[in-house]
Automatic annotation (TrEMBL):
This is HTH cro/C1-type domain-containing protein. Keywords: TPR repeat. GO terms for molecular function: DNA binding. Pfam families: TPR_8. Residues 8-61 form the HTH cro/C1-type domain.
Amino acid sequence: MNVLGNKIREERESKQISQQDLVKDICRENVLKMIETKNRCDSKIVFHAICNRLGLKVDECIEYTDEEKLSLLLDKIEVKCNIFEHKEAYEIICAYELGEVQQNILLMSQYYYYIGITALVGAKNLSLALSYLNKGLEYGDNVNIYSILSVNGLGGVYEEKGDLEEAKIYHEQSLRLVKNYVGNDVSVKYKIYFNSARFYSEVKEYQRAIEICEEAISLNEEKGTFHHLEILYYELGFNKHMIGESAVIEYKMAYYLAKHLKNKHVINVILDDAKRYNLSFQVDEDGVI
């Protein structure tokens, strides 16, 4: 991998550490010389150890390509969206200068999905969200997971516009596409189920919302995964409660999963529901139901 050898050398010299002392019990001196003079290191483990010994952050010492930089940024954006910090995510992605990555279809589809969905949820800018999400579809001719998410996101745009019939078309289309999706079982695909279940809950089609949640939960069970289970169980519990069914188990599952994942947004929503709907469980001072 390409690294910032000058930064390693300057930090080593500023701390008056010899090459021999720096690489002791890590690697041979010629490996460090390659790093400092050729900006190359073939071992991530070695490079991490050298950076740690110098007190440097590894990410700040690697020379990333434009594609790698964007991929790292989008990973950060995804984490923020997962905990409902869309406004901050939108500010971060808008400040990023897009490099030479236009030929990477999957990455561009991912970029336009995230700038679109954060424009919708974080900035409340429907026209920008519509533009970005449609742009994401242009990079999704081969139907990747982010083009499907863009279809799903368009359902959210039309919901905000008040065009519920159009919103329903996009949500159902995204559900059909994700059901036939044959790519890797990435966690973001379960957001499609959650978003669509939340939409049907908003329009008071509670049974349809329950069906969608149960399908996503069963898929997780089948594959032995835990993708977005805290929000899926919450949505399942809420909708079961709205049709008069007991939802204590689902709410408890959602609460403990959210607590484990430190998803404060979901925890607060559950506690608000408990008060608003007089649900038959309470949380004590230690956060235990």
